[in-house]
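#struct-help
A.M.: can someone run this one for me? Single chain, 321 residues.
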Amino acid sequence: MAKKALNRNIYPFIAIVGSAVNRRGEMLMRKQLFSTLLAASMLLSMFTVGFAAEEETTEEETVALEEGEQLAAILEAGYITIGTEGTYPPYSFHDEDGELTGFEVEIGRAIAKQLGVEARFVEADWDSLLAGLEAERFDIIINDVTPTDERRETYDFSDPYTLVHYVIITREDNDKIASFEDLDGMTTSNTISSTHALIAEEYGAEVIAVDNFEQSVEMVVSGRADATINSELVFEDYMSRQPEAGLKIAAVYPEGDVTAIPVRKGEGALLNALNEALAALIEDGTLADISEKYFDRNITPESEDTEIETEEASSEEDTAE
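D.P.: on it. C-alpha cells below:
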C-alpha cells in the first residue's frame, strides 16, 4: 500500500519534471532554429546586396558603353532622324504639294549631306519635341530652339546657326501695348514651355496655351488674346501671306537670341560632327543662301542683316520725310 501511495505521489512530480524538460528542450530548439534562420537571412542579405551592386555596376558600364555610339549608329543606318513641327512657316511647313519644306528643313538636309546620310523628319507639336528627344524618337531637333540655361541642364547644344529678335504682335487698333513692360496684366497666346511664353510670363502676362503660331495669331486677330510673342521673321512671313490680317509689331525685345540644335547628353561625337557640319555650311555660303531664300537676308550669327521696325518707328520716319 505504501509503495502504491509513493507511486501515486511521484508520478505527478515526474510528469511535471518531464514537462519542464520538454519545454526547455523546445526553447533550446527554438533558439537554435532562430539562430540558424538569422544566419541564413544575413547570408542571403549579403548575397542580394552583392548581386545588386554587381548588377548596378553592369548597368553603369552598359550606359557608359552606349554613350557616344549614336553617331556611329546614324552612320551605319544611313540616315539621321530630325524632330520638327512642320507647322511653323517659314522654318518648317508643307508646301502646296504637301511636301515638308522650310528654312530649318533645308538646314537639316544640308547637315545630313555633310554627314553623308539621309535626313528623315519626324513631326511633332512644340510641347512634345524635347520630350521626344529624351524618348529617342529622333536623334536631334532642328526647330528654332533657344539654348536657355534651364535647357542646357538637360541637353547639349550645337553652335548657334541663327540670330533672331522677338517681337510683340498685336492688332493694329491696339494702343495699350507699346513695350514689353505693357504686357503686365495682359494676355498672350503662345505655346507652353516656349521661350516666347517664358518672356511673356516674365513681364507679367497671362499665357493662353496654343499648339502653334497660326493658332496664336488667330487668338489675337479674334480678340481672345491681347498679343502674342514670336520671331519677327515668322511674323514677316505670315504678313506676306496674310497682308489683310490687321496686325502689327508693337515692340521689339531688347536683346537678340540665338537658336541651336539640341542633342541628348553624352553624345559628344555627334555634337562635334554637327558643329563641323554647321561650320562647313557657313564657310561655303550654303547657310547664307538658305537664309536669303526664305528671309531675303542672312540671319546667321556671323552676319546680322536684320532691321526691325515697329509701327511707331515707321510713322516717325514717314513724318520726317
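A.M.: thanks! The first strand starts at residue 79 and ends at 84.
D.P.: also worth noting: Residues 1-31, 33-65, 306-321 have pLDDT under 50 and may be disordered.
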